[in-house]
Amino acid sequence: MKLTEKMEEFMNDLIGERMEQVYQEKDGRKYDVFNEELELAHQNVLRKLPKEQEKILFDYATEVANRCSDMNEFYYRMGLRDGLMLKDVIQTMLDALIE
Length: 99
Known about the structure:
The chain is about 90% helix and about 5% strand. It is mainly alpha-helical. The longest helix is centred in the C-terminal third of the chain and has 48 residues, at about 50-99. The protein is elongated, with a radius of gyration of 21 Å. The relative contact order is 0.06.
């Protein structure tokens, strides 16, 4: 495995772990309460539907969640990239001031 592949794998793992950590906490509170209430409401709707329609709604919800996850990861990566670029710019400015 090449060094760049190892670095990409490391960054993917790091980003995934960080995103999971951020999603789990907000001002010290867990997101789980909201998700539990929403999940219960979703399950109640699914129980009232025929099996065929239940599968359609489940598949739709899964696809929406996957797309949102991909979009969130994209924005996280762009923010990380922008932050690293800003760090480099600031370091360059500091180096210029020191010289």
